[in-house]
């Protein structure tokens, strides 16, 4: 319960900071983040409700030949969708090259061949 409360507080503060400072906030965050970037456990973030909802909505219109995630960050949704829809070419784009590089390493580490971040 406390963990969920702290998570909500964290995201609330992060979104307020983004609203006030814009994309420069995220660029600074990713640039100054400790290396290597820890993207966490796939099984944990794949269970986030918004990602499960997205996958369920896409399953209603499957089969899909391609999926594009604009503003993909480090590609958490891209990886989830690539695993869920192996017949689709899943692409993610983002302005932050640091998150793109980390996400592509994560995708490669999972052995996924139908996904790439740009």
What does this structure look like?
It is a single chain. The longest helix is centred in the N-terminal third of the chain and has 20 residues, at 2-21. The protein has 118 residues and is mainly alpha-helical. Helix content is 57%, strand content 11%. The radius of gyration is 15 Å and the shape is globular. It folds into two domains: 1-32; 39-117, Rossmann fold. Strands 1-2-3 form a three-stranded parallel beta sheet. It has helices spanning 2-21, 23-32, 42-45, 49-59, 76-84, 97-109; strands at residues 66-70, 89-93, 115-117. The mean pLDDT is 82.
Short synopsis of the structure:
With 118 residues, the chain is mainly alpha-helical. The protein folds into two domains: 1-32; 39-117, Vaccinia Virus protein VP39 (Rossmann fold, 3-Layer(aba) Sandwich), CATH 3.40.50.150.
